[in-house]
Amino acid sequence: MASNPPAPEAPFVPGQRDSETFGYGSYRTDEGPWTEWNPTEESIRPVRGRHRVAKQRGGLARSSTVLGVGVIAAVGAGGMASAQTGKPPVSISMPDLPNVGSLISDDSDEPEDTATALSSVGAASADTEESASDAGEALRTRIMAQAEQQQDQIESKAVAEAAAAAEKQAAAAVAKAEKEAEAKAAAAKEKAEAEAKKKAEAERLAELAKQYALPTSSYTLTSTFGQAGSLWSSGYHTGLDFAAPTGTLIKAVHTGTITQAGWDGSYGYKTVLTLDDGTEIWYAHQSSISVSVGQKVATGDVIGRVGATGNVTGAHLHLEVHTGGSNSGIDPAAWLRGKGLTL
Question: Does the model's pTM come out above 0.70?
Answer without folding.
Answer: no
